[in-house]
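BUG-646 | component: ligand-complex export | severity: low

The export step for FE(4)-NI(1)-S(5) CLUSTER with Oxygen jobs runs without errors, but we want the raw record kept on the ticket for reference. Input record follows.
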Amino acid sequence: MANDGGMEIIAVECIRRPAKESTPEIVEKKIEERTLDASSKLVLQKAMLDGVETVWDRLEKQLPQCKFCSTGVSCQRCSMGPCRLMGGDRTRGVCGADADLMVARNLLEHLATGAAAHSDHGRDVVETLLKTARGESSNYSIVDKAKLMSLAKEYGIDTALPEMKVAELLSLAMLDEFGTLKGSLQMAKRAPKGTMDIWVQKGLLPRGIDREIVEAMHRVHMGVGAYYPDFLTHGVRASLGDGWGGSMMATEISDVLFGTPDIKTSKVNLGVLKADHINISLHGHNPILSEMIVKAAALPELVSKAKAAGAKGINLVGLCCTGNELLMRKGVPQAGNHLDQELVITTGALEVMVVDYQCIFPSLPNTAACYHTKVVTTSPKARISGGHHYEITPENSFDQAKKIVQLAIDNYPNRDQNRVLIPDKPVEAMVGFSVEAVKKALGGSLKPLLDAVLAGKIRGCAGIVGCNNPKVKHDSGHVGLARELIKRDVLVVETGCASIACAKAGLMQPKAIEGAGKGLKEVCGSLGIPPVLHMGSCVDNARILNLVADLANLAGVRMDQLPVVGAAPEWYSSKAETIATYFVGSGISVVLGVMPRIEGSPNVVKLLTQDLEGVVNARFWVEPDPRKAAAIMWDHIESKRRALSI
Ligand code: BF8
């Protein structure tokens, strides 16, 4: 049942942490253990003193976590189970599955889940372009016309046709790629021929996006395959379908509709909330709605209403990847990353938190119930108990956005100014490094970057991507690793929550070159850019694929031959597993900072950390210590340089 009236579906309560666990000593110790970021520490302290439960408290309650689940040897796949492989004479599930099969099946399910999440987001964006092209939604327009035309050319569409016809045909061609068997995905052909050849030879070339995901779900059903390596091969193929398909569409078509990011400066951390403004945070992943909120919040009549309510104006702040989308394109300040989502509410200064989908804690309405904040859900796929649901479609999104902004204005008088705490030092960050923006900064091509790599001024490039995970001290993995790498003259590119972590730590300011090695300092210094570049949201890992593919094509080598490496130091989500897998499948080795649930099968561990190298010339490592991870990445980069004799 759709609900566009903003009704609260179910009333929920504030969940409290026991007062005895909030003594000053405990609070002081825990904030130091839990987060690196000074603004997060301050607000986390407030949350604990206010007695508000957070993700870290919930993790503690779960400890110790089930060792069978955490090593992948538990299975809930069918009703003969659930099963756990406990060793001794209990080494097979009721169906007969051994540890290798159980682990591989579980992993494939995660990879398919991650690919589905990104790609379904991509489809929503493409459908919005289709409705725009057909005149069914007047809320959107073609902002990057050049990108529309270059994509149309890539898809073999006649660019002499009227613009909206081109947009319609492009949308239909992309939508076809979800389900229609066409040989392979169009944008996968951006990869160098040598990389494509590997995919063809090894049976990894993604076919339709939905097809790979549906096939994955078929394969994990009980009693289909029982040869564990096949699950991992298919996992790579489904992940490649996300990276070079669904995610790449999300990125490219969002650029068409909202503009390709260019370099700009904004601010980050919880200090971007404003005490004298109506604050609205935009959380989730898809810019289709949040772009409308930006438009609505700028309407003079709504700004006047905000002033009439006693505020100085309306302040929008981003969170997670919806925030990254807005930060990259519009310079909307970013309040934080994954583990900051409850803390934004805890400031006591947030009128409305608008969410679309993915990475949204189901308990956010409970956190909001501890203050005056209203959580607004907007996707029919992602209603949350306790949320106020304003369902968004491409047709109604602007009208709904206006209602949501009005809700925030109406809620402002409910704010208790005595319970407000906003950190006072937002950090400046230079953002917006799309591939196009990087090329522009370099004078029109990536050649100067390639030359700097060939000359050894830049030893190589590292992509640090992914989430926060309360099992890792918030932001410490990303920031520690980035600092180590830039010291060694490695240019760092980032997306998702990793980029927000480093932005908060000041690594996305041009002056951060002070922490870089001599060569990187010289290159970035001459361009006036930071040594750590923000390339966007998680679907924008497609930008990293494009960057590496462009560099490899320019150098005339395969992607795996470049001195390039990836890392996901604090990952938690299935999407991050999929991203890491499509990086590896594309020839970019990856260091994970958190162990996936595979240790129950030494064979699967070996396959991912050793044998994959023989298939795609890339592999995984698992290393939680940022210094050791940096050393692994450095060795890898240097070995690639030696192989190229540079
Ligand atoms: O897609 S980095 S916590 S917000 S999954 Fe989520 Fe991880 Fe953040 Fe963006 Ni990506």
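Assignee comment: Attached the raw record above. The radius of gyration is 24 Å.
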